[in-house]
């Protein structure tokens, strides 16, 4: 209960006297209580006006805001739950307005009994509640840029991921009620947006753990998250978690839709194309301190997010010396499968220029690659599933910038505007 | 994968053909995709207009909305996380507006080194993320009413509770840094609202698990939740989790403040008064179906919330026959200490009038009492810590009403308007 025991409780690297907590040893006063009555009770609480800067990032290079992405401001957030208004968003034709009274979900095709469900039908059925991340396959797309862009922020690096508690009926229950015929090995899920977005899901996954979700952190889905009903497909890329779900056609073959041919396929270094790359690979990113922030010398708790579509986070390691040495970070808060996981790491910054990095290992043994390892495997015109280690350079002035190594492999080709990455690259 | 296996997967009580899922076996069509581009990307997502009715309940009998409560609409929510805008609110003098740049937290009194922290100071320190419920001591106050009010809803019965992931620095770290003197057995926490709300917390609890919290579900606290900083005191009554925290005075004795003498004390049946009744007792409530809702015959998944300030939910049991028989409900989603826990129970309603109830047991063996057991212990003019079983009567017409038994012990005295319960009772 004294200064010594406090310091011992922090990282061993902490130097005595570095905490700078004490702003005045005497003569200070608390700031005063409010002199008058404050704001009265409201039916819905609103955010503090002084937090108005904490919004999602939307690139100003988008030709249209009907297709593109809004990035969750992960550089400003803590914990593993993303507030519903700040959950990342990726649309292909804007957000449709659906009257829940008109809503119907049709389940047809290779089934014994075609079914149609109202929203009330779905809500009466057995439900599950699960905390899952959803991540756009294009998350990390800025990492393909060569040389790395110095002004990258955590939000623009990996903000196409969010975490929420989802409530819905297991798709398994609907499929079993309809009676899927043995040849019905694929589920073609279609959205009610103007893009009529279609993705193909193996029936096996649909029977395993997919949710037909209607609640997000307790309340109805937000319109941009698929109101009134979306699929939640744990661990898999966001674009397969079809929003505004209007039907599921059980079929013998995948749809080979636009969203799984011209988009959301991956180009290997040797030019071959991988389709149906559903699972989101192990990721981690330090969110504090991160690009665009500025820190002062002294104690900092480094914080970040880790997740893996293969399962649960097993371990996160942090380097504060540009990768020369690594130490294990502490996981804080719930550690759940297919969910964002928060890691923290005590650090005492002496004011020298350095590079911070995190890397993670999931419970299946998958390891997050370095940027060099990653780019060796994938073509320079690939756009998806970038999960390399993100480095942050802390300057002697405390300014934090992108610290990714330039690989001197030539300029990347321009990336199409309006994709998941949501930004136009010039190379 | 056929109808039989689906039905077998549900409760044994399910009668074949009762699901009423199939609205048309042929000739149906999905509703159409949007004919035009939808709403473009926005910096912050907003709720669907068709969900505008899902707001917090504020009694229209309050003399002033500066003191009173807004109830979380638990009858409409799922899961264990409450969206920040719908988290319940209890104020004593309205919500102060605090500029985070001006904010200071002072820690003084019986300490070796008085300390003052800016918001940045607090955020640099080690943080924890925990999912906790917060519950007003006045939650359930409507249950004291005799005879029970027929139109009670789940929201008005137990909506002064919410769940969130809180991020903050453990108070232990600040106390250890300040060096609490051996005689400093109490922490007097004071808010910066116009009420200058004060509560006394044993230093032992402060060293154990109290958070000095600045984030709620990832983002900055909402103003009505204490922006920029509040205490989160796991399992203890809400009024001790001081919002807009301006100082902690370490003292040898409790403050005996208004909030722990004239309010937030409990009157026993024999007239003796219990003060410092901090821990929130085991609670559970069925939220679906619940008072004010109407159901149709057939399958329903009964859903509800359970929690206990003593620890974790161990077991929830549900009765669908007015308490004659009880069966164990299933817990779905994360089951965490001091957190809301969601239970579900498959039920096939044949259309007969009946009464639904839930009761819970926590991992310390504490059992939620019946209304008769509860009211035997506490005086009729008690106002706090009501945690008796809530019964819902389902009429033959499917309408759900308060099913609490009238105990014929005479009318309760009027409860003061503007208390936690937020409503005026006429007896």
TrEMBL record, chains A, B:
Q: Which Pfam families match?
A: Mo-co_dimer, Oxidored_molyb
Q: Name one GO molecular function term.
A: molybdenum ion binding
Q: Residue span of the signal peptide, if any? A: 1-24
Q: Which cofactor does it need?
A: Mo-molybdopterin
Quick one: a GO biological-process term for this protein?
sulfur compound metabolic process
Keywords of the record, alphabetical order, are:
Metal-binding, Molybdenum, Oxidoreductase, Signal
What EC number(s) are associated with this protein in UniProt? 1.8.2.1
Q: Does the keyword Signal apply?
A: yes
In terms of superkingdom, the source organism counts as Bacteria
Q: What is this protein called?
A: Sulfite dehydrogenase
The keyword Zinc appears for this protein: no
Give the source species. Answer: Oceanithermus profundus
Where the record annotates domain Oxidoreductase molybdopterin-binding, the positions are 92-255
Q: Domain named Moybdenum cofactor oxidoreductase dimerisation: which ranges?
A: 277-390
Give the InterPro entries listed for this entry.
Answer: Ig_E-set, MoCF_OxRdtse_dimer, Mopterin_OxRdtase_euk, OxRdtase_Mopterin-bd_dom, OxRdtase_Mopterin-bd_sf, Sulfite_DH_SoxC
């Amino acid at each position: 209960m004294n200064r010594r025991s406090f310091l011992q409780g922090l990282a061993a690297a902490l130097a005595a006297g570095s905490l700078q907590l004490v702003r005045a040893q005497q003569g200070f006063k608390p700031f005063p209580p409010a002199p008058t009555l404050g704001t009265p009770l409201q039916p819905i609480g609103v955010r503090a006006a002084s937090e108005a800067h904490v919004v999602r990032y939307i690139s100003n290079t988008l030709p249209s805001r009907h297709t593109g992405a809004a990035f969750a401001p992960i550089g400003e957030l803590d914990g593993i739950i993303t507030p519903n208004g700040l959950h990342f968003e990726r649309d292909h034709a804007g957000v449709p307005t659906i009257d829940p009274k008109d809503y119907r979900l049709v389940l047809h095709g290779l089934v014994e009994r075609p079914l149609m469900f109202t929203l009330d039908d779905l809500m009466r059925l057995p439900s599950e509640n699960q905390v899952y991340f959803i991540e756009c396959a294009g998350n990390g797309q800025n990492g393909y840029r060569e040389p790395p862009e110095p002004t990258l922020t955590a939000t623009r690096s990996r903000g196409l991921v969010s975490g929420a508690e989802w409530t819905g009926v297991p798709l398994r229950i609907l499929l079993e009620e309809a009676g899927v015929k043995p040849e019905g090995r694929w589920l073609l899920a279609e959205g009610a947006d103007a893009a009529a977005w279609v993705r193909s899901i193996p029936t096996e996954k649909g029977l395993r753990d997919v949710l037909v979700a209607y609640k997000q952190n307790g309340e109805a889905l937000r319109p941009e998250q698929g109101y009134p009903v979306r699929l939640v497909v744990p661990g898999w890329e966001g674009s397969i978690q079809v929003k505004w779900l209007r039907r599921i056609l059980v079929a013998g073959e995948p749809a080979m839709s636009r969203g799984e041919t011209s988009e959301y396929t991956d180009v290997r270094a040797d030019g071959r194309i991988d389709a149906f790359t559903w699972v989101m690979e192990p990721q981690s990113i330090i969110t504090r301190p991160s690009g665009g922030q500025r820190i002062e010398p002294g104690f900092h708790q480094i914080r970040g997010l880790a997740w893996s579509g293969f399962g649960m986070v097993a371990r996160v390691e942090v380097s504060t010396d540009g990768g020369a040495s690594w130490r294990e970070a502490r996981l804080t808060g719930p550690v759940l499968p297919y969910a964002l996981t928060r890691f923290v790491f005590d650090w005492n910054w002496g004011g020298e220029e350095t590079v911070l990095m995190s890397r993670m290992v999931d419970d299946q043994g998958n390891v997050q690659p370095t940027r060099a390892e990653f780019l060796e495997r994938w073509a320079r015109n690939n756009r998806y599933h970038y999960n390399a280690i993100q480095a942050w350079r802390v300057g002697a002035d405390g300014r934090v910038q992108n610290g990714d190594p330039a690989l001197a492999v030539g300029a990347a080709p321009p990336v199409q505007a309006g994709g998941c990455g949501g930004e136009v690259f010039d190379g």
